Recover the amino acids of this structure.
């Protein structure tokens, strides 16, 4: 009897499960009911563009420029002057004074020299250039302070100690012919400009250490008490512009070793320009406005030159789609080839910007002053696609939605009408595109993250097809919505 009851109970349970599985409510099985199905649609919208002068660019960087060239697009000179400070390692120490071997005149320092290491050269590598080296000032009212906002149009001369004149001058070529071909081809050689400073400067640094070693405890103290840095100014020669990666100051001396007391060792200390201290380039150029306003194209030009402004049709995008989500909004900026670029000497051909930043116009200055990176909401970066001769921003949908939300929230909070709010915020739907240089890091999982975005200060230029009413730039938008809504 008990077995019969158990069989009957199992049959009832099985029938119950069968009934449940046959119900029309499929939500629990991972199948969306019809009213929750997602549908998509797409549309194309017109984007207008124009040129914007970008003459004021944050200049503090780990890359500096030096030289003077003629801009092939304006036929005007571009001159680069740079100033740099030097980093001192914390609590730096020299050998004990009694172990230093002075020369016959009693000098502790054998020599002191600066090396400007060259990353790349624009123009003629054999062209003679003359540069003056001026000391920066340690006076409080002229000190190159860390708190200063420095730009490419900042007059660096205001930080110079002009009382004694330049400490030295140097005539150089980008290719150092003082070295043999074999020496320059060595894998241990890095192309650089070697500038010998007066030995008295090195002597003063060493004497300062032995009298006040606390001045070497960090870069802050070293700059204010020992060596504030130098300004490098081109005074003659045209046709060469150096892109410098690092600047070092080497102080050479000889000393006895405690391990080998009968031996005399040649040693040196190196102070380098690093991100911990200021490096700043000042550019002088003119006649940029004549490149602006062409009906066929807008310009991207650096350093401190021209960028392109885009007006996004945000109202049009949301009209009739108030309850839809924007899944994708893609924008392609097509490059216009220079007709005469093939005729230019390769040494004097301006490069094509390889990376671009798209950022809201109202955030443009703050983005660089605050050392921000792109957040894929109000700022985006992209690369030049040589195959298609264009720059493609694959998806700026979050920017479109952000601007629309900002506008609606602003109108509600202020009580303004749409016309009043837009008049008070004329750049709410404007973005700027500018050449940049980015740096990224990769974690142990292979994922990369952007760590810095700086405006490109190299000599580069390109033209972008202008978005006009008659011939606009097209933005492709994909909407998504639940069919039941």
């Amino acid at each position: 009897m008990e077995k019969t009851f158990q069989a009957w109970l199992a049959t009832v349970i099985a029938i119950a499960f069968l009934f449940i599985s046959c119900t029309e409510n499929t939500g629990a099985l991972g199948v969306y009911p019809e009213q929750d199905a997602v549908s998509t649609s797409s549309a194309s919208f017109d984007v207008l563009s124009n040129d914007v002068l970008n003459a004021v660019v944050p200049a503090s960087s780990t890359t500096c420029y030096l030289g003077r060239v003629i801009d092939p697009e304006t036929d005007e000179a571009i001159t680069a002057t740079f100033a740099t400070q030097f980093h001192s390692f914390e609590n730096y120490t020299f050998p004990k004074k009694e172990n230093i071997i002075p020369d016959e005149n009693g000098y502790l320092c054998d020599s002191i020299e600066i090396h400007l290491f060259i990353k790349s050269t624009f123009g003629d590598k054999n062209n003679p250039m003359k540069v003056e080296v001026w000391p920066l000032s340690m006076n409080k009212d002229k000190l190159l302070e860390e708190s200063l906002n420095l730009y490419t149009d900042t007059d660096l001369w205001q930080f110079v100690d002009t009382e004694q004149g330049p400490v030295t001058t140097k005539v150089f070529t980008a290719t150092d012919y003082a070295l043999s071909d074999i020496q320059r081809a060595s894998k241990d050689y890095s192309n650089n400009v070697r500038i010998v400073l007066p030995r008295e400067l090195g002597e003063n640094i060493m004497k300062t250490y032995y009298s006040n070693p606390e001045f070497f405890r960090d870069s802050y103290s070293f700059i204010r008490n020992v060596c504030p840095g130098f300004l490098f100014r081109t005074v003659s020669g045209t046709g060469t512009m150096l892109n410098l990666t690092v600047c070092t100051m080497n102080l050479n001396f000889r000393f006895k070793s405690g391990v080998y007391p009968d031996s005399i060792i040649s040693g040196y200390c190196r102070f380098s320009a690093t991100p911990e201290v200021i490096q700043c380039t000042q550019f002088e150029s003119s006649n940029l406005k004549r490149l602006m306003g062409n009906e066929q194209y807008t310009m991207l030009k650096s350093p401190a030159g021209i960028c392109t402004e885009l007006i996004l049709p945000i109202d049009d995008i949301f009209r009739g789609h108030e309850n839809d989500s924007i899944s994708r909004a893609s924008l392609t900026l097509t490059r216009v080839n220079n007709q005469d670029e093939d005729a230019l000497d390769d040494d004097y051909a301006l490069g094509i910007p390889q990376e671009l930043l798209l950022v809201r116009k109202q955030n443009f200055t703050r983005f660089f002053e605050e050392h921000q990176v792109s957040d894929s909401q109000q700022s985006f970066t992209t690369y030049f696609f040589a195959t298609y001769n264009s720059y493609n921003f694959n998806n700026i949908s979050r920017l479109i939605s952000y601007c629309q939300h900002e506008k609606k929230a602003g109108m509600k909070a202020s009580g303004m009408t749409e016309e009043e709010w837009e008049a008070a915020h004329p750049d709410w739907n404007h973005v700027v595109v500018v050449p940049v240089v980015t740096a990224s890091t990769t974690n142990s999982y292979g994922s990369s993250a952007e760590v810095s975005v700086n405006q490109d200060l190299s000599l580069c230029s390109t033209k972008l097809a202008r978005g006009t009413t008659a011939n606009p730039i097209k933005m492709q938008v994909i909407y998504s919505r639940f069919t039941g809504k």
Q: What stands out?
A: Residues 1-32 have pLDDT under 50 and may be disordered. The longest helix spans residues 2-21. Residues 77-284 form one domain. The chain has eight helices and 21 strands.
